[in-house]
Each structure stands twice: as structure tokens, then as C-alpha cells.
Amino acid sequence: MIRYILTRSVLLIGGLIVASLLIFLALRVLPGDVAQVIAGAEGTPEQVAQLREELGLNQPLPVQYFSWIGGVVTGDMGTSLITNTKVVDELLEKAEVTIPLGLMAMAVALVIAVPLGILSALRRNKLSGTALSVGAQGVAAVPVIWAGMVLILVFSLWLGWFRAQGFPRSGWEEPGKAFMALVLPAITIGIVEGAVLMRFVRSATLDAITRDFVRTAAAKGLTRTQALLRHGLPNVGLSIITVLGLQVAGIVVGAVVIEKLFNLPGIGRMLIDDVGARDLPLVQGELLVLTAVVLLIGFAVDIVHRILDPRLREATE
To answer: How is residue 153 annotated by DSSP?
Structure first.
């Protein structure tokens, strides 16, 4: 098991290195000159050239890359070209919105997917089970931004239960207001991701129902539901953990869109704004952090899966 963890750790580090290189190169091929953007429309060629030299943009790409990645390793992701603030400080501030939003969205997805997925499987031959399955497929196909606009229309404009946009300036110093500002955005992401997860829960439940140990338990006097809850849920839980790890990427993408829609000061909204401003250090840091989160959670899910599943644990020993 230890050797497997070390192997996966090496692959994780390799994935982060490849991701950092792709992020760096992708931003260098985008149209537009950062120095020209900073200098403005009235900037002279001499001023632009001077800015390029000050920012190190006239150095060879390998020098720029290793300078950046060397700083990342030591905890220094550079300084914003626009606000002149440390990238790490900006990310930590915005993470106070994005991390709670992601966790709340994941909780909503689980609350929706697990009971409805199991119910859909148990009632697969009834109208209610079919309706749940078809409904999940329909919701899973809905773009998260469209779902957000519908929820704003219903729960903010018509019912007035939630604010349509914004986050308290004092942040989590007012936890009640901060929490309420994230409820509707989290529900928006959670509904769509929950519908996707529900389909996997349904499939895992159907698979568990056909297992011999569930049939044996049912033959000893338990109902099908009781047999599933007592003996089949561990198998369903493993499937949920695996798929939920894969859905982190969807939650991250959803957060980027939803933060902009709901005007939340998180990493996602900052990323969209900084791409438009061509603030390369900030964009590089934001993309690398988001990519690292996805890879790290995938790594953690893989290890947890190996620990919980005896078959996989034995295969790695």
C-alpha cells in the first residue's frame, strides 16, 4: 500500500508539472500584449518596451517559466500586474468564498443524489422510479448558468427568499449573511451535479441489489430495502466516493460560472476578470490552484478507495 501511495504521489507531482507547463504556454499564445494593456491606449512604444523589460516579458520563455515555477515551489506565485498585490494573498482572500461554495454545493449534490438514486433503483419498475430517472437525465443536461438564472428568477425575484447577487463586504465576520449569500449559488451547482451523481447512485444500487449477499439476506426474511441498507450500502458508498471525486472538476467549473453570475468575490470570478485584464501572474496562479485542487482530490479519492475496498487493497499489497 505504501508503495502504491508513493507511486501515485509521483504521478501527482508529474501531473502538476505538466499542468503548470500547459497553463504557462497557453497564456503566452493568447492575443494581446500585457505591457500594452498596462500602458493603455496612449502608451508610447518606448513605454511599452520599458514595461516589458520591467515585467520580464522580453526574456526567453524557458527563463520565464522556471522563474515562475521556482517561485511557486517556495510559496511565491508572483505579484499582480494590475493591483501590485501578492498572488498568494489574493488567492487566500478569494478562497474564503470559493471553498465554502464548493463544499456546500457538494453537500447539496449528495443530499439530492443518494436518497433519490436509491429510491429510483428500488422503484425502477414503477412510474415514480421512471420519473426520477428521466428527471435526473433532464436536469443533468441543463447548463449550470441557465439553472442559476431560473433559480434567481424564482427564489430571488418572485419569492424574495434570497439575494440575487452579492456577498457581504465584511465577509465571514457576519457568518449568517455570508452563508445565506452562498445558499442559492450552492443549490444551483448542487442540483446539476446531484442529477449527474444520482444516475451513478442508481446504477450502483441496481448492481448491489443483484449481489448474492443481498439476495441471501432477503431470503432470510429481510425486505429488499432492508437487505440493501444493511449489506449493500458499502458497495454503493464506494461508487459514490469514486464518482464524487470525478465531479470535483464539474463543481470547480460550475463555481467559475456561478461566481460571475451571482457576483461573488471568489477565485472563479477573479479568474474571468483577470483573463480580460491580461494579468498573467494572477491567471497563472488561479489556474494552477484550481488544477491542483482537482488533482489532489482525485489522488485522495483513489487512496481512500483502496483503503475501503479490500479487493483493491489486497491488489496493492
So the answer is: I
Residue 217: how many other CB atoms lie within 10 Å: 19
End-to-end CA distance of the chain: give it in Å, rounded.
5
Mean pLDDT, 10 residues at a time, over the chain (317 residues)?
82 92 84 66 72 76 88 87 86 91 92 88 84 88 90 90 84 88 93 89 80 67 66 70 78 87 90 81 89 87 73 53
Helices (H), 123-174: 127-140, 144-151
Contact 88, 285 (CB under 8 A): yes
Q: What 3-state DSSP class applies to 189?
A: helix
Smallest Cα–Cα separation from 302: which of 292, 291, 293, 313? 313
Q: Return the half-sphere exposure (C-beta side, CA atoms, 13 A cut-off) of residue 81.
A: 25
- Going from the C-alpha of 192 to that of each of 199, 223, 291, the distances in angstroms are 12, 32, 21
CA dihedral in degrees (215, 217, 220, 226; nearest 10)? -110
Give the distance, in angstroms, between the CA of residue 125 and the centroid of all CA atoms in the same chain.
35
Amino acid identity, residue 41?
A
The contacts of residue 74 (CB under 8 Å, 6+ apart) are none
- In SS3 terms, 225-248 reads as HHHHHHHHHHHHHHHHHHHHHHHH
Q: Which three cell numbers stand for residue 60?
A: 526567453
79 forms bridges with which residues in the sheet?
A: 86
Which H helix or E strand runs over 54?
A: helix 45-55
Residue 151: helix, strand or coil by DSSP? helix
Residues 114 and 240: beta-carbon distance below 8 Å = yes
